[in-house]
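Project outcomes to date are best conveyed with an example. Our students and postdoctoral researchers have been running inverse folding experiments weekly, and each run begins with a structure described purely in tokens. The record below, which covers 392 residues, was selected by the lab manager from last quarter's runs and is presented without edits.
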């Protein structure tokens, strides 16, 4: 089936019902209550366990459930495929959906390997010529405070940006007795903290600055290399085959330098994405654990008046917030997914390519691969083609 026009209502199928499936389902269930979006229907939720996916579908507002994503993709009443499954499944599902004429939203990172990401991007470009749209889910672009930060930077309020610090820190693997999961096996996760959360941090650097990466130096480390698992060994321990933490230094085309640090063993840090952007005329500070706030220093005022101001990003004039609550009534993490679905649906209705595109996801994937290459070569400097990260 080839989609050449936007049907109404749009039939939506989501694949995956765990953490991301729940977050995306919440967004689909609520977006039309707050934003003016094209008509759509939550048709079907797909998962491997028939009983569990049926229970999840009933809870999350889906009309039905299914266990075979291939059959769902072939249905004429399905126009959008939302991929919330683990990364090792992204390429096969996304390519099949695009070839079937379905619009595709896929969670980050784009894929587990650079080769898969390139195939997905090529499929997306081909589908776009037939009016079939695609988007990668870097939901933090939809945090109102970060959208405001991008506006301030684009307006020149920071002047020339010199350097950026991005640190995404979690602690859910701090305990060495935490059991193995698919996220700790390279064959299913692709990488550890690097692909899981460094992808977000790197995308923010590119998004906020509208810049591209030219050189990369990186390091990876696994602090707990064996964990309780399903191994048949006498110890009952299984090898961890991905990184617990990663560090990277990124040289940008503008001349700015960005440092990126990510960890899933940073004890006490639950979900802290900290961003610091330093320019010659000002500075911006942000922490995801206080996502309604933006720190801003204007260095153009007299020194005696300088100091960081706390902007509570809850005004109707701020990005996305005209749809929500009165001033000062804060929003949360889950709202970023609602904003993401709103932007995706709006782009489909307008016949425009949504952002971030699969090309943007591929850009990040190239940078992640360069970090791995550098780490394997004792943090050697890796050059990136100027076309690799262009347009991110």
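After processing, the design step wrote out the following sequence:
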């Amino acid at each position: 089936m080839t989609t050449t026009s936007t049907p109404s209502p749009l039939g939506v199928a989501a694949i995956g019902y765990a953490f991301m499936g729940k977050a995306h389902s919440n967004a689909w269930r609520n977006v039309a209550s707050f934003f003016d979006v094209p008509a759509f229907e939550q048709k079907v939720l797909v998962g491997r366990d028939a009983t569990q996916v049926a229970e999840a579908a009933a809870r999350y507002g889906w009309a039905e459930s299914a266990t075979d994503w291939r059959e769902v993709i072939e249905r004429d009443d399905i126009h959008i495929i939302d991929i919330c499954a683990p990364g090792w499944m992204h390429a096969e599902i996304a390519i099949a959906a695009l070839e079937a004429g379905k619009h595709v939203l896929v969670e980050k990172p784009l894929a587990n390997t650079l080769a898969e990401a390139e195939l997905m991007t090529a499929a997306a470009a081909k589908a776009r010529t037939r009016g079939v749209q695609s988007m990668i889910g870097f939901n933090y672009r939809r945090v109102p405070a970060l959208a405001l930060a991008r506006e301030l930077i684009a307006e020149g309020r920071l002047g020339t940006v010199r350097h950026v610090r991005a640190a995404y820190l979690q602690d859910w693997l701090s305990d060495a007795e935490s059991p193995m999961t698919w996220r700790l096996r390279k064959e299913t996760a692709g990488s550890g903290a690097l692909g899981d959360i460094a992808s977000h941090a790197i995308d923010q650097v590119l998004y906020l600055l509208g810049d591209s990466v030219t050189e990369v130096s990186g390091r990876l480390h696994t602090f707990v290399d064996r964990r309780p698992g399903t191994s048949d060994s006498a110890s009952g321990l299984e090898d961890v085959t991905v990184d617990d933490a990663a560090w990277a230094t990124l040289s940008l085309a503008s001349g700015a330098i960005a440092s990126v640090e990510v960890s899933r063993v940073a004890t006490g840090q639950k979900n802290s994405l900290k961003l610091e952007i330093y320019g010659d005329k000002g500075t911006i500070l942000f922490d995801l654990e206080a996502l309604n706030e933006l720190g801003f220093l204007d260095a153009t005022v007299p020194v005696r008046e300088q100091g960081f101001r706390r902007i509570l990003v809850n005004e109707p004039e701020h990005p996305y917030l005209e749809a929500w609550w009165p001033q000062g009534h804060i929003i949360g993490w889950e709202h970023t997914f609602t904003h993401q679905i709103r932007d995706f649906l709006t782009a489909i209705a307008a016949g425009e390519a949504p952002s971030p595109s699969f090309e943007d996801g591929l850009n990040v994937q190239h940078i992640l691969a360069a970090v791995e290459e550098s780490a394997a070569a004792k943090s050697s400097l890796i050059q990136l083609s100027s076309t690799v990260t262009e347009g991110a």
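The longest helix spans residues 358-376. The first strand starts at residue 10 and ends at 15. The training component of this project remains on track.
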